[in-house]
Write a structure and sequence with these properties.
5-stranded antiparallel β-sheet; about 210 residues; two-stranded antiparallel sheet; about 20% strand; alpha+beta
């Protein structure tokens, strides 16, 4: 079985809670890729077709979704190596899809922090995404694949930081478009579309006003 097939039979996602998580619910929601998320939360993902189940804790670190140590448990596969493949496939496919297809008001602010407003949701299967998801959802999925991947901290975040630095130091008489085209793109080796995406992320992270 390929790693891709672990999560292609339809996924069901539910909120999860472990004893000791109570302080997490006192946090304020933070923006990530245009959506609001708690800084720390747990979800359980199940694939009915393959009988794989994974519970994982997520912590938002500088705009990316990180996992605290020993924060994942996998049920279904018998061997440790197979469980590692399930985790890797989830990072590439199932997790960003689960996050991108969350109902709009999955989390809500409460008087003392936040609380779950959704009992669960079922993202569309990967093979039917083009028919089920609109352009905004597909764009969010692409961005969340960036945010959940290991390159977020080693590649994307340094480039976003450099983009913000260039924009802050650009001559005042240049338009944003000119700065992006003539300064940011050559320095960061990306096209304009990616440069503007990095600019939006820089605003989100507080690197730009």
């Amino acid at each position: 079985m390929s790693a891709f097939r672990y999560w292609t039979g339809g996924i069901h996602v539910e909120p999860a809670h472990h004893d000791g998580d109570e302080p997490w619910y006192e946090d304020e929601l933070v923006p990530v890729a245009g959506r609001l998320f708690p800084p720390r939360f747990r979800i359980t993902m199940r694939c009915a077709a393959t009988e794989v189940e994974m519970c994982l804790a997520l912590a938002i670190d500088r705009g990316g979704f990180d996992e605290p140590e020993n924060a994942i448990s996998v049920h279904g596969p018998a061997s440790g190596s197979e469980k590692d493949r399930v985790r890797a496939a989830a990072r590439k496919l199932a997790l960003p899809l689960a996050l991108a297809m969350m109902p709009l008001y999955t989390f809500r602010q409460s008087p003392h922090g936040w609380e779950w407003a959704a009992a669960g949701w079922c993202p569309p299967e990967f093979t039917s995404l083009a028919d089920c998801a609109d352009r905004d959802q597909l764009a969010l999925l692409k961005e969340l694949r960036r945010r959940t991947g290991p390159k977020w901290w080693s590649v994307h975040l340094p480039r976003i930081t450099e983009t913000a630095k260039i924009l802050r130091g650009a001559p005042a008489d240049l338009s944003t478009r000119s700065v992006i085209t003539t300064m940011v793109c050559p320095a960061t080796h990306v096209g304009r579309t990616q440069a503007y995406a990095d600019k939006r992320a820089a605003h989100e992270l507080g690197l730009l006003p």
